[in-house]
Specification:
With 363 residues, the chain is α/β, with parallel strands linked by helices. It contains 17 helices and 13 strands.
Length: 363
């Protein structure tokens, strides 16, 4: 099972490597990402790791795939720091947007991109970091990484565990691989009884499995006072009494629906402002073009923040092209839409707008 999996992964990497090198030549900023995927990290990270080891601190490897998971683990990291003061942590994420968010929240020296799941790379990174504890959030199951971390003596635990159907289909290509990988974990904390039954049916030792609930309910949201909300509206040049529709974490196909609804609502509610926050920030230009195709006047958040643009564009739609602002923007919404619910994604975190007492629409 591992041999077949590793053969397939090696073939895929060899096929994609020339393309990756070409992209790195055309876009030099991509080269650092490629290096990190190969397990070659910055001096900043190396110095941080060295400092932890010099101070004889236990290292915690925390694997959170993307922006949503990064935000979700904030209370956990705080709790770990308070309970285990003689420890330090690194955050491993699988997306560039997740890395940007983690850099902002925890410091760039503590954050690395998920290395490729190749045996040699996995062993080298595991030996370099040598964590005492590895925490995997939701279902970031990389067989070689898990095995390598386990071999260097790390306890490996899953929290907020949930079985993704796409991942299960992927693992079915390699019979026995998922069972073998899950059984290398020391503990599996599942979201609910349904998820517990799924991993139980996969052949995981029952003594390792517990229902521990959903970390999303432990979210640390900022309480926004009236002045905070006014400051946000002022920065976006939104009138105090405007009706604000915030569409958060949207996916392809959902923006088109939102634009059509917005145009209809605008006929009745003249002071309606739309804020769209795509799940993938790389799609901002695509969404702007889509909005212009509907004869709307969209503007990116960063352009609006520039003083020479403020108050002069007559915009109708704000497209969020920054990381980490969406939750705060929900606080100024009149009504919110949470994306990934019309697309076949399963939806994103409804608790963020609900925390601020906002009515929420979803598919």
């Amino acid at each position: 099972m591992f041999m077949l999996y590793n053969l397939v992964v090696h073939v895929l990497v060899l096929c994609l490597l020339p393309l990756a090198l070409l992209i790195s030549l055309l876009k030099p900023n991509i080269s650092r990402e490629i290096m990190e995927r190969l397990g070659l990290y910055s001096k900043e990270f190396a110095d941080y790791l060295h400092a932890l080891k010099q101070a004889k601190k236990d290292i915690i490897w925390l694997n959170a795939a993307s922006v949503g998971e990064i935000i979700m683990v904030q209370p956990l990291i705080k709790e770990l720091g308070e309970r285990y003061p003689n420890s330090g942590y690194i955050v491993v994420t699988n997306s560039c947007s997740g890395q940007q968010m983690a850099n902002k929240l925890f410091g760039a020296e503590k954050v690395i991109l998920q290395p490729l799941d190749l045996p040699g790379i996995a062993r080298r990174v595991a030996r370099k970091v040598k964590p005492k504890l590895t925490i995997v959030v939701e279902f970031e199951m990389w067989p070689n990484i898990i095995q390598a971390l386990s071999k260097v003596g790390s306890k490996v635990v899953l929290i907020n565990g949930a079985m993704d159907n796409k991942i299960l289909k992927y693992y079915r290509l390699f019979p026995g691989l998922l069972k073998a990988t899950l059984n290398k974990l020391d503990f599996l904390g599942m979201k609910n009884e349904t998820e517990k039954k799924i991993v139980d049916s996969l052949g995981v030792k029952p003594s390792k499995i517990r229902v521990t609930g959903d970390l999303k309910y432990d979210g640390s949201f900022k309480v926004m006072c009236k002045d905070d909300k006014k400051a946000i509206k002022d920065s976006l040049d939104i009138p105090e009494n405007a009706i604000v529709l915030v569409a958060g974490s949207t996916h392809p196909g959902e923006e088109e629906i939102i634009f059509k609804v917005y145009i209809e609502l605008k006929e009745e509610f003249k002071d309606l402002v739309l804020i769209i926050a795509p799940r993938q920030i790389e799609r901002v230009a695509e969404i702007r073009q889509l909005g212009e195709g509907y004869s709307l006047k969209p503007v990116e958040r960063t352009r609006l923040a520039a003083k020479d643009f403020k108050g002069t564009l007559g915009y109708e739609v704000v497209i969020l092209d920054t990381i980490g602002e969406l939750v705060d923007l929900y606080s100024i919404s009149t009504i919110a839409f949470v994306g990934g619910s019309f697309a076949k994604i399963g939806g994103h975190n409804l608790l963020e707008p609900v925390f601020y007492g906002k009515p929420v629409l979803f598919g």
